[in-house]
Amino acid sequence: MHSVEIFIDSERASKPRGTVTISLTRFRTRCAICNSALNCSLGELINLLQTMAKKSKHSIPLHKVIMVGSGGVGKSALTLQYMYGDFVEEYDPTKADSYRKKTVLDGQECQIDILDTAGQEEYAAIRDNYYRSGEGFLCVFSVCEQESLEHTQEFRDQIARVLDDDTVPFILVGNKVDLEHLRKVTFNDAAALADEWNCKYIETSAKTRQNVDEVYTELMRQIRNRKAKQEKLEGKSSSGKCTIL
Ligand SMILES: Nc1nc2c(ncn2[C@@H]2O[C@H](COP(=O)(O)OP(=O)(O)OP(=O)(O)O)[C@@H](O)[C@H]2O)c(=O)[nH]1
Ligand SMILES: [Mg+2]
């Protein structure tokens, strides 16, 4: 991203009945960082100003997280615990719910957008559309249900297929660890799968709030770092020359 200073020379012409028009006779844009002149038409200049105005309005970074995993594993319970500090005992299958809140990541203000999707098989067909908007994924299973761990492979594959990318920020989450006496999946088995996928494995309890903040924070960190890398690459690929966005 280049920073742009704009110099405008104008001529004023008074019109009857007090209206004033300003006609541009010359304008010049210059990058405030590398000081090179930018060539652009008046139309491009207006677009640029509008883009800059929009960006400054939404200057708090927004990180888009999507909850995936089988039905009943605790995606909504984790989301509601993170958002409101509440644990919901009842099971009310989700179709799709979206949440947003301001938070602080490593001392920097940001916003998190969480899309809580449906785990139930009957909604499988609508998942593709949701996945497209995701910048990072929490793939949840229940440590009390072996089958829910096996299903995570399908979610992982579907995300990689839809985004055409298997390096998107992604964390494998083993939930319901407060129910230790009902545990069917060992830490090592789930961690081995995460190793295969080259991602982190974190165990949580939506009931006791164990590691709840940690999974969202860690995923936001991964999203933020990936965006920073991409921005750097984009900056380099423009070979140091100024670009009008
Ligand atoms: N003991 C315990 N129960 C949990 C935990 N997380 C969720 N539950 C319970 O498990 C049930 C299902 O939780 P949900 O969060 O609705 O599951 P979900 O993954 O959102 O399910 P779908 O919306 O159908 O995809 C609810 O009764 C929750 O109270 C947990 O960490 N510990
Ligand atoms: Mg749900």
TrEMBL record:
Subcellular location: Cell membrane; Endomembrane system
Alphabetized Pfam families for the sequence: Ras
Membrane disposition: Lipid-anchor
Protein's name in the database: small monomeric GTPase
Molecular function terms, GO-annotated: G protein activity; GTP binding
SUPFAM superfamilies: P-loop containing nucleoside triphosphate hydrolases
Enzyme class: hydrolase
Any one of the GO CC terms: endomembrane system
Entry EC number(s): 3.6.5.2
Keywords: Cell membrane, GTP-binding, Hydrolase, Lipoprotein, Membrane, Methylation, Nucleotide-binding, Prenylation
GO BP annotations, alphabetical order: signal transduction
Predominant location: membrane
Top-level taxonomic group: Eukaryota
